[in-house]
Amino acid sequence: MNQTRGILFIILAVLSFLLFQAYTQDQAPKPQVDSTNTIGQYNAVGAETDAKNSVSIANNELRLTINSVTGDFIGADLLKYDRTVEDKTPLTLLSDRPDDYLRIVNGLYGVDGTDSAEKRANYTISNQTADSITLTYTNNNVTYKKIIKLDGYQVLVTYQVQNNSERKISLAPYSVFVYRPAPAPSLFSRSNIYGTSQSYAGLVISTAEDNYDKISTGDLEDGDFKDVTTNKGWVAISQHFFVTAYIPIETGSNQNFTIQSNYKDNTFNISTRNQITGTDGGSDIVNPGQTKDFAVKYWIGPKLQDQLEKVAPDLDLVVDYGWAWFLSLPLFKLMQFLHSLIGDWGLTIIALTLVVRIVILPLSRIQFKNQALMRVIQPELAAANERAGDDRMRKMMETQKVFKKYGASQFAGCIPALVQMPIFLALFYLVNEAVDLRHEPFLWIKDLSQADPYFILPILNGLIMIFMFSLTPMPENMDPTQRKIMKMMPYLFIIFFLFLPAGLIVYYIVSNIITILLIMYFNRKIKYQFENNLLPTYKVEDRPNKLLDTKRRR
């Protein structure tokens, strides 16, 4: 009975976790969208973003579209990532279209910067290659060059300021993310451009005080804002499998990160009801006759952990494994290694399941051996309870005698199951966060990171669980309410697993099949030992004969 309660506790914990995930998504702030407003329109002369002012540079991974007049990033397409399984056009992360939600306004601000409340830069193209472009702008005997170069998914921006005037000038780089939250997929969504609804999407800031801080702009009232000043860090827009990050390169001054909604900025002429984040630093001095470079960089691309950790400290934390990161991270490394040997992500998940189950086999052995023991000693337990009658203390003592006689334990089955629970949750986060699984097919599944569109996997998993539960009959004296709940569990799992990533259900199906094989093996072994008097039936006072009994069992 205690074994059954342990299993019931684990199942209820899993279901509670899944319910919590669904609840938090349903309660998430809904985006405030003003359909009449074009994101971030400028009033300054020469700031229009029509097609004639658009220029693109590209490499094998990224195509970046730039406003050649202002130097803003008005488009970014990921050339190795399709929009959806059916739509093979490149996924767009940045766009200045009114129905999209993210672009980057950037430049130099300050007394002598290129951008102010009265004007913005009026750049011209002075040099261009396939993956780089140089924009040049001259004003008041100061020449500004904005050099944009692609390196994989990194965008390296160098502002080269040549002061040909006779006075000191003061300026610094800035960047503004004009941002509107993407529509969150519902619980019933089986396909989404950026990923499932189970992952955080929104603003993330890393500072000297907090290396990973998620900030919900939905909590801000119209016109409210939050300022964060730090001497190091980055700011990013997380979009589940993808991230757009701004990484200032320190010039000796602090950076200021601002998050605001219903934004009206008199500094850069940006007016929008959509949420934005601004980043800037303290002004720096360029002396007469001096040329000075200001360098910043961006990451516009997928959440590739190995690369992100090299781009900036703690940037790899945008792959949000939650509290289970200490398990999810090594499991991800193991999954990468297995995939390098196998080459198929579906088979990799199966191989990962086998490795995990082999590692925890010593615990599983304790669990299923004890479960089999509890099965064969049920008649003696029932007899002991009958002898004790209504005397609860005597009933407990008689039960303990039976347990001691056969070496069974009330807790041996629960503890290994509790150990496996964090592993399951770590794999949940892993499958949900690994961009490697996005659009990866397996059998009839077109995307392992999304739910099975035909619901075959969750139904198959439910049928397997029904059979698995039948191998562990419930005690006759089990509480009727517990009995009903246990009978309902496989069917509840079918419902909740309908909307989980297919890759996770593949893991769970394989794991449950292994569990069934272990249960069948130990049930047969323990039953044979019990029927042939090979179990340790000695009493406490017979301990000197323990060695003899052990030899006999062998």
Q: What's the arrangement of secondary structure elements?
A:
Elements: H1 2-26, E1 54-58, E2 62-67, E3 73-82, E4 90-95, E5 102-109, E6 124-128, E7 132-139, E8 142-151, E9 154-163, E10 169-179, E11 201-206, E12 213-215, E13 225-230, E14 234-239, E15 242-248, E16 255-260, E17 263-265, E18 270-272, E19 276-281, E20 284-286, E21 291-302, H2 305-311, H3 325-342, H4 345-359, H5 361-376, H6 378-388, H7 392-406, H8 414-433, H9 456-470, H10 480-497, H11 502-531, H12 546-553
Antiparallel strand pairs: 1-2, 2-3, 3-4, 5-10, 6-7, 7-8, 8-9, 9-21, 10-19, 10-20, 11-12, 11-14, 13-16, 14-15, 15-21, 16-19, 17-18
Helix pairs in contact: 1-8, 1-10, 3-4, 3-8, 4-11, 5-8, 5-11, 6-7, 9-10, 9-11
What this model shows, in words?
One of its GO terms (cellular component) is plasma membrane. It is found in: Cell inner membrane; Cell membrane. Belongs to the OXA1/ALB3/YidC family. Type 1 subfamily. Pfam families: 60KD_IMP, YidC_periplas. The chain is an alpha+beta fold and 554 residues long. It has two domains: 52-320, Beta-galactosidase, Chain A, domain 5; 332-532, no CATH class. It is 36% helix and 25% strand. The chain has twelve helices and 21 strands. The protein has a nine-stranded antiparallel beta sheet with strand order 6-7-8-9-21-15-14-11-12, with no helix packed on it. Strands 5, 10, 13, 16, 19 and 20 form a six-stranded antiparallel beta sheet that branches. The protein has a four-stranded antiparallel beta sheet with strand order 1-2-3-4, with no helix packed on it. Strand 7 and strand 8 form a beta hairpin. The two termini are 29 Å apart.
